[in-house]
Amino acid sequence: MTSTDRYQITHVIQVLETLVGSLDPISLARDLVTVVEVVAVPPPGDPAALRALAQGFRTAGPAVAGLSDEVRALGRSRLPQAWSGPGGERAETVVSATADLVGTAGPALSQVATALDAHADTVATLQARHSALHKELHDAWHDATHVSVLGFDVPMADPLALGRLAGSVVELITGCIGVYRRSLDAADELRGQLSDVAGRALASAALPTGTAAAGAVVLAGTTVGGPAGYDNTIVTDAQARQAAQRRDALDPADRSTVDTLLAAATSPQERAYLVKAFAAGHDVADLVAFHAQIQGRDPQWLRDHLSLIDPAVPGMLSYDGQPVVQVNENTCGSASILMARAMTDPLYAFGLTTGGSPDDPAAGTGAAFAARLRAEQLRIHDATNTLWPESLGTTPWGVAGELNRHADALGTRYDWRVVDDTNDRSVNPALADAVTAVDHGYPVPVLIGDSYPAHYVLAVAHEGQDVVLYNPSAGSVVRVSEQDFLDGRLDPVGFPHVQGVVTPAG
Amino acid sequence: MPPQNRTPGDRVALDPTTVDDQGRTACELADELARVRGAWWRDTDRAGDAFGYRDLDQAYQQTHEAWFAELGVYVEVLSELCAKIRASAAQYQRTDTDSAARLGGAR
């Protein structure tokens, strides 16, 4: 079978569902012909070819992982022992950053191998099941349209056999529908895993930001805090690409100013936040002013004042003892928008934590932060609910509209999608798209509820089998299993059903 | 400045032979990573109709290309490190030899 559009399989499912709802003994013989033709299409995929690809990744993964140990040894012991001074320190920094990234490459390639092998197994199982069901349906059709006369098959409808077959044919068709649905789900799962791995190729995304390869490696390995993981790099791959595009669009004088500014950064973190601010759409003058405010600050200060959240660290979020939480029962959407903006624009986070006056002790207190957090959430709530009763919270279109007012900073426009969580094929693709967006550094508001929409959370990261959510009602970072997320089961954040998502457009 | 008040950046010391060896190691690692990358590319570039679904095939190609580029950056960095570390070792050696000569030592 040649590559197919998933709509072909969806169409097969729709035809089968229509047929299974209208089967009766009178039309069974005719309908069976249709069914046998429709289910002639096996679930797509070639298990042998998938396993061959998996083998290529499985060979490369450990080979790359072994090299990362060699690179690490070079950076941590051999080079420092032989070369001290600024040049040696810089070389050590670059080698260590390279070792960290090479260290992520081996597991990433091995993860693809595992995912491809698992998908090959699923495809093989589904194709075998499909083949058996197809044969049974063909046999059922044959039984219903042939009678045996003196040991010879004679084409002739057998009314008694047709009546007996109706029930079993429904089961066979339902089995085929299950096979095709599982095929679509398996494709979605693999697509999500591939996207997760693609989103971890950070250095190549950072390369066009005007830096040499060494600078790109250091930038790509600079995290909000701790080792890389859970999409916690300061500059995401999408932001690195945005920064590169914006740099290309500058006139030579401004480009030179930006390059000089980045070169003058006193730490990898300082440089990463400058790149992030540039990616968020701030002009050169804003960037220069921002740099004057943060230059020389230590990495912990930068983390505390420019990142409200570290997706790699589950638990409560706070700034100077104040929880980063929704300020009343109606501002979960507003708090999610605020967090999405704070994650993508360090000047916005800087404004919330310092009021723009980092050297004024009163402006940087937890109480001052809490007051700004409250005012900003209420401002967003007003802006997103012009025609909607504020007591009902924020609509998905209100969330999308407010995010789109800051599309430059977020790097994308957003669309809202209602999810029908009684239909797997509605929930799964919408949430798979949400995970894909998160993999590339775009936070995604998720509307959840019980029998009605009740609460927003923000999907902020994805790593392996976990999706990371910011829950504004608790002011916490929570990990849920990817499968529960894809199935719309979000009990860990208080509600069992997903009602909608606000995902990047296109 | 008294030695006890020095910060790490104040002191420069380099063992040219050992540093040059480390530069060569970076070169060898770059070569080995390039070899692994090339073999992996050859083994996995042609997916054919493995996936069946067009969008899944595109997702695979994107991931494949992203990591080919990513591994390429690592190779480039290691090659740059090799060249620059070895150049630093050589320059340090030359500078020290020149200084010795200026002070009347053997060249």
Can you put this structure into words, describing what you see?
- The complex is a heterodimer of chains A (506) and B (107).
- With 506 residues, chain A is of the alpha+beta class.
- Chain A has three domains: 1-198, Up-down Bundle (Ferritin), CATH 1.20.1260; 205-211 and 221-307, no CATH class; 316-504, Cathepsin B, Chain A (Alpha-Beta Complex), CATH 3.90.70.10.
- Chain A is built from 19 helices and twelve strands.
- In chain A, the strands form three sheets. Chain A has a seven-stranded antiparallel sheet with strand order 4-11-10-9-8-12-7, sandwiched between helices.
- Chain B has one domain (17-99): Orthogonal Bundle (Helix Hairpins), CATH 1.10.287.
- In chain B, 73% of the residues lie in helices and 2% in strands.
- Chain B has two helices and one strand.
- Chain B has helices at 16-44, 54-102; one strand spanning 13-14.
- The longest helix of chain B is centred in the C-terminal third of the chain and has 49 residues, at 54-102.
- Chain B is rod-shaped and about 75 Å long.
- At the A-B interface, helix 3, strand 1, helix 4, helix 5 and helix 6 of A face strand 1, helix 1 and helix 2 of B.
- Strand 1 of chain A pairs antiparallel with strand 1 (13-14) of chain B, so a sheet runs across the interface.
Tell me, rounded to a whole number, the average pLDDT of chain B: 85
Unreliable spans of chain B are 1-7
Biggest sheet statistics of chain A: 7 strands, antiparallel
Which CATH class of the largest domain in chain A applies here? Mainly Alpha
Question: How many extended strands of chain B?
Answer: 1
* Widest sheet, order of strands of chain A: 4-11-10-9-8-12-7
Number of helices of chain B: 2
- CATH architecture annotation of chain B: Orthogonal Bundle
- Biggest interface and residues each: A-B, 64 and 52 residues
The rounded distance between the terminal residues' Cα atoms of chain A is 28 Å
Can you identify the CATH class of chain B?
Answer: Mainly Alpha
Q: Report the strand count of chain A.
A: 12
Examine the secondary-structure arrangement and name the CATH architecture of the largest domain in chain A: Up-down Bundle
As for the CATH topology of the largest domain in chain A, it is Ferritin
CATH topology of chain B: Helix Hairpins
Q: Low-confidence segments of chain A, ≥5 residues, pLDDT <50?
A: none
| Structure class of chain A | alpha+beta
| Gyration radius of chain B, rounded | 23 Å
